[in-house]
Amino acid sequence: MTSKDDSAAAAPVALWTRQLSEGLKTMGLSLSASQQQALVDYLALLLKWNRAYNLTAVRDPRQMVSRQLLDSLSILPWIRGPRVLDVGTGAGLPGIPLAIALPGFEFLLLDSNGKKTRFVQQAVIELGLPNVEVQQARVEQLADACGFDTITSRAFADLHEMLDLTGHLRAPDGQWAAMKSGLEEFNRERLVPGLRAQVERLEVPGEAGQRNLVLITPA
After folding, report:
1. Cis check: omega of the bond before 61, within 30 degrees of 0
2. How far apart are CA 212 and CA 98, in angstroms?
3. 175 Cα distance to chain centroid
4. Residue 72 to residue 195: CA distance in whole angstroms
5. Number of DSSP helices (H) and strands (E) in the chain, helices first
6. How many CB atoms lie within 10 A of CB 22?
7. 124 Rama sector, left if φ>0, alpha if ψ -120 to 50, beta otherwise
8. pTM of whole model > 0.85?
9. Angle CA(159)–CA(92)–CA(168) in degrees, nearest 5?
10. What is the pLDDT of residues 170-211, one digit of tens each?
């Protein structure tokens, strides 16, 4: 017999599965059935943990696919690998959705908040993501000999602060891919010599607000 609680828990999963499939088609992204299932499983974990640990402000299950999965996956065409750093990953966004979509890339998900990194580590274990490493640290204290091909963030800092704090972690030909709702704080004139910036407008099904991706690459 299925309990009322079990039925309530299953209802969002059916909704998410449909929303994700439709959203991916609208965005022109192709993910396998197992990848889509992993994304839905991630949302289920996030919803469960969020009740106790306040990991994200998005609490309405009807908004979780668009604001957490599709929003994260909207930058997929611009991600270079094989090494990707997600700075200030929070609850694993955009890092976990991107890692599910790009199993051949290596992801480091970084955050200074222990509560959030504990959740992300547990999600990585339960989802079986061998291409993801999680670290709790401040980005300025992180050292990496090889550098990352893409450094991304969804809600870390303003763009120029992000460049300053993560510059030592970028591979020689690497790029920054910063997700931003607005660009008020971004000044191209403040870029260091040898870098150039381009702005891509992101379209996220179910989201009316403006979303941008700022790509900063070697000139």
Report:
1. no
2. 17
3. 16
4. 25
5. 7, 7
6. 14
7. alpha
8. yes
9. 40
10. 999 999 999 988 776 666 767 778 899 999 999 999 888 888
Name the burial class of residue 161, with classes exposed (0-12), middle (13-18) and buried (19+) by CB atoms within 10 angstroms of its CB. Answer: exposed
Give dist(CA 138, CA 161) in Å, integer: 13
Residue 89's φ and ψ, nearest 5 degrees, are -65, -20
Which of 160, 56, 40 minimizes the C-alpha distance to 113? 56
Q: How far is CA 66 from CA 102, 199, 208, in A?
A: 19, 21, 10
| Rounded CA separation 179/202 (Å) | 9
Q: Which two tokens stand for residue 22?
A: 């439709």
> How far, in Å, CA of 108 to CA of 185, rounded?
27
Contact residues for 34 (Cβ-Cβ < 8 A; gap 6+): none
pLDDT digits (tens, 9 = 90+) for 41-70: 999 999 999 887 878 878 888 999 999 999
Q: What are phi and psi of 150, to 5 degrees?
A: -135, 130
